[in-house]
Automatic annotation (TrEMBL), chain A:
Keyword flag S-adenosyl-L-methionine: no
Species of provenance: candidate division Kazan bacterium RIFCSPLOWO2_01_FULL_45_19
Stated name of the protein: Cell division ATP-binding protein FtsE
NCBIfam families: FtsE (TIGR02673)
ABC transporter domain location: 2-226
Gene Ontology CC annotations of this record: plasma membrane
Coiled coil (UniProt feature): none
Keyword line: ATP-binding, Cell cycle, Cell division, Cell membrane, Membrane, Nucleotide-binding
From TrEMBL, chain B:
Family matches, as PANTHER family: CELL DIVISION PROTEIN FTSX (PTHR47755)
A cellular component annotation (GO) from this entry: plasma membrane
InterPro entries assigned: ABC3_permease_C, FtsX, FtsX_ECD
Entry's localization field: Cell membrane
Name of the featured protein: Cell division protein FtsX
Protein family according to the UniProt entry: Belongs to the ABC-4 integral membrane protein family. FtsX subfamily.
Gene3D superfamilies: 3.30.70.3040
Organism for this UniProt entry: candidate division Kazan bacterium RIFCSPLOWO2_01_FULL_45_19
Keywords: Cell cycle, Cell division, Cell membrane, Membrane, Transmembrane, Transmembrane helix
Origin: domain of life: Bacteria
Presence of the UniProt keyword Cell membrane in the record: yes
Amino acid sequence: MIIFDKITKHYGSHKALDNVSFSIRPREFVILVGPSGAGKTTLIKLLLCEEKPTFGSITIDGKDIHLLQEKYIPYYRRQIGVVFQDFKLLPSQTVEENVAFAMQVSGKPDSEINKEVAKILELVGLKDKAHNFPRELSGGEIQRVAIARALVFRPQFLIADEPTGNLDPANAWEITKLLLKINSLGTTVLLATHNRDIVNSINKRVINMEDGRIVKDRRKGKYDYK
Amino acid sequence: MLIYLNRILRSAMSGFKRNGWLSLVAVFIMTQALLLISIFASLNLVIGASIQAVNERIDVAIFFKETVNQSEAITLKSQVEQIDGVKQVIYVSSQDALAKFLADHRNRDSILGVVSKDENFLPASLEVKVTDPYLIEGIVGQITKGEGGELISQTSLEDNQKLIEQLRNFGGFVQRSSLLLALALIIIALLIIFNTIRITIFTRREEIEIMKLVGATDWYIRWPFIIEGMLYGIIATALSLVLLYIGYLTLAKPMVANYLISTTDSPVFTVGFFAFLAILQLVVGLVVGGVSSYWATRKHLHV
């Protein structure tokens, strides 16, 4: 259970988030929609402990994540998978190395890493491309590598910030289906997106944000913007 | 733990290789700094050995007036022995002095011709050895101004003093100038390594950002850079030790053999001294490399 409790975030005089409260239940699939500047990215930054809220708190399973000591933040981040619009892969490393990289950071032995990476690549359907470099892949495939990397720690919670923003409709659908599959396997998913077709066709909970506030929160929502 | 170490080391090595010529410059400057420190330490040693040699060879001689008899002289000898810093006092009687003089000049007939064994013109004296050359003046002062002062006609202090003073001055000059130069080079090395690491951080900023996102700890990100800096120190130490040894064989060794006044047979440059130099260089190299890269990560690595 993730609870956002009266979160407010100021950047100077600008209010990026204004008294935002909602909660996400385990295994839920939540879509965050809203125009640029609505506060989606700020919300995700707070969730990743990259920034601290000006007021309010975010608690995960009863623990306020912003009360974590600095040195525990890396360990906290390993429990959360993140996927970005710009993928953030290392161009000089192969698919396999990119995914393994995340596990090396945590000090896992090579044998365990190899086993785990193979499993994850199979899950995202990139087993055959393990030794390819990102530049040799399509946009959708690259994003699947990023998802694979986000999943290596078997997180309970996956955050996807505009993961389909750089993809064509077919690839966007591939990624969305993959996220749904991951969700069905038991991972909570928070998806921030601009993609109307996807929001309208998957029938999941939609939270609409505008000017740093939540304006709608519906169990089976639609994309309401033009 | 070992896994971490392995991965951090590998990352540091790749950083070193990626920086190419910049790494070389850093190593080069560091090598020069280390060399200077070693030369400074070596000169210090040589000058120390020279001063010691001078002291051991020409001790202070205290000459008695002709009227002083042997028992008075022996009394003064035991008094002098009580003074702090006095290592040894030898009484040289008038006859002893003559015998030594004749022995020293046995091949020079012209000198021997004018010396008559019956009319001994050489005074009796005390030869005083001290533990530390810096104490000589004080000790001689104590003797001449003390109770036995009126027994003494003159001392050899003035002659010795000049030589020792010159050695001390030269030593001080060499010490100051080499230390200053070494310090300047160390600062330059610090700055260059700092800059090298800064560039490494810059070229790797993407990787660092991703590392943070996937939950790498601060130190996991930071250590490769610090080790890269220390690597510069280690390589510079190895280089400067090789250069130093070549310099020792071609320059220092013949010089010491030819010019150094030494009564002792023990060599000036011992294996122990080289070990000391190696450790000194390694410590300075590691500290300078490590500190400058740590400083760079503090300033430019926003973890």
